[in-house]
Structure to design on (304 residues):
C-alpha cells in the first residue's frame, strides 16, 4: 500500500492534523495516530479503567492543568506518580512557581539559590515555603492517622489543599487514587523523614497493596497511559500482572531500548511478562511527553 503524503492547511484543527498522520500511517506520525485512537477508545469505553503514570518533570514542565483536567473530565481513574511530580504540584499549590531558565551558569544559579531542571528554574525560597506548609499538613494528618499508607497520605494532603489546579487536590475531590511508590525519593520523603524523628508517624508502602489489588481485580478492563519510564511505568504495569496485564496502553518516552531498561522497552515486551495481555492494543511513541501527549489528548477529545 502506498504511503499517503501529509497535507497541511491553514486553520486546521489538531484532530485534522492527526487524521493526516493516520492517513500516512508510517514512522512517528503513524505511531502518534495509533496512540491517539487507543487513547480515545480507552477513555470512551466505560468498562475500561484508565491508569496513568507520571514519570519525569511533567508538572514543572507545564502538564499540571492537563492532568487536572483529565481527572475532572473522568478520563483517568488512577494515577501512579513520581514523588517529584507530587512535590512540584504542592510547590505551586503553596504559592510557588516554576520559571523559564535565562541561560545562567549553574554555579551562578547555585549562588542565587536556584535549582535547574533542564530549562526550568525553581527557587529555594519556594522550597522553604513548601517545607513549612508540608510539615503543617503532616501535623494535621498524623494526629488523625499515625499509621497511614502512601495513597492515603496523598489523599489526605489533597483534601487539605485549596487549589483547583492542583492535580493532587483535584484527584482527592474526585476519588481518583494516587499511588507514589517512590515517594521517599523526593522533597516530600525528606520532610517525612525529618518529621518522623520527633513525631509518631509511620508511612506504610505495603499498605497500598490491598486497595490497589482490589481496583485491579475489580476492573473489567484496564488501559494504561504511560508518560515517561522508570518506577511509575513499572508499578502501573506490574500491578496489572494480578489480572493478566493491561488490555490497551499508550507509552510516550525518550528512553532507548538497547540497554534493556524498562523505560526504553517497547510496550510489546510487557506481553512476555503478562504485564500486557496477549492481543492487547499497544502503541509506543518515542518523543518528549510535553509535546506528544498534549497533541494526542487534544486530538482524542474530538473522538470522544
Amino acid at each position: 500500500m502506498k504511503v499517503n503524503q501529509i497535507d497541511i492547511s491553514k486553520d486546521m484543527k489538531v484532530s485534522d492534523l492527526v487524521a493526516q498522520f493516520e492517513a500516512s500511517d508510517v514512522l512517528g506520525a503513524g505511531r502518534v495516530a495509533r496512540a491517539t485512537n487507543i487513547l480515545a477508545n480507552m477513555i470512551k469505553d466505560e468498562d475500561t479503567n484508565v491508569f496513568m503514570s507520571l514519570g519525569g518533570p511533567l508538572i514543572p514542565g507545564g502538564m499540571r492543568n492537563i492532568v487536572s483536567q483529565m481527572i475532572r473530565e473522568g478520563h483517568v481513574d488512577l494515577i501512579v506518580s513520581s514523588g517529584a511530580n507530587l512535590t512540584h504540584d504542592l510547590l505551586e499549590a503553596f504559592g510557588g512557581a516554576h520559571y523559564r531558565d535565562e541561560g545562567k551558569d549553574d554555579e551562578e544559579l547555585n549562588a542565587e539559590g536556584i535549582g535547574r531542571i533542564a530549562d526550568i528554574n525553581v527557587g529555594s525560597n519556594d522550597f522553604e515555603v513548601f517545607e513549612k506548609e508540608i510539615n503543617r499538613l503532616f501535623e494535621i494528618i498524623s494526629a488523625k492517622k499515625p499509621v497511614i499508607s502512601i495513597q492515603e497520605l496523598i489523599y489526605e494532603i489533597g483534601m487539605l489543599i485549596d487549589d483547583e489546579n492542583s492535580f493532587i487536590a483535584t484527584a482527592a475531590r474526585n476519588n481518583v487514587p494516587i499511588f507514589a511508590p517512590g515517594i521517599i525519593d523526593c522533597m516530600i520523603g525528606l520532610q517525612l523523614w525529618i518529621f518522623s524523628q520527633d513525631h509518631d508517624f509511620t508511612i506504610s508502602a505495603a499498605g497500598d497493596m490491598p486497595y490497589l489489588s482490589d481496583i485491579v481485580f475489580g476492573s473489567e478492563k484496564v488501559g494504561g497511559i504511560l508518560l515517561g519510564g522508570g518506577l511509575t511505568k513499572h508499578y502501573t504495569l506490574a500491578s496489572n500482572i494480578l489480572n493478566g496485564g493491561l488490555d490497551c496502553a499508550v507509552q510516550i518516552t525518550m528512553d532507548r531500548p538497547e540497554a534493556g531498561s524498562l523505560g526504553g522497552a517497547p510496550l510489546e515486551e510487557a506481553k512476555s511478562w503478562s504485564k500486557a495481555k496477549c492481543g492487547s492494543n499497544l502503541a509506543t511513541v518515542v518523543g518528549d511527553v510535553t509535546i506528544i501527549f498534549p497533541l494526542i489528548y487534544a486530538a482524542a477529545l474530538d473522538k470522544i
Observations:
- The domain at 14-96+148-185+203-301 is CATH 3.40.910.10 (Deoxyhypusine Synthase).
- DSSP finds 13 helices and eleven strands in the chain.
- The chain has one domain: 14-96+148-185+203-301.
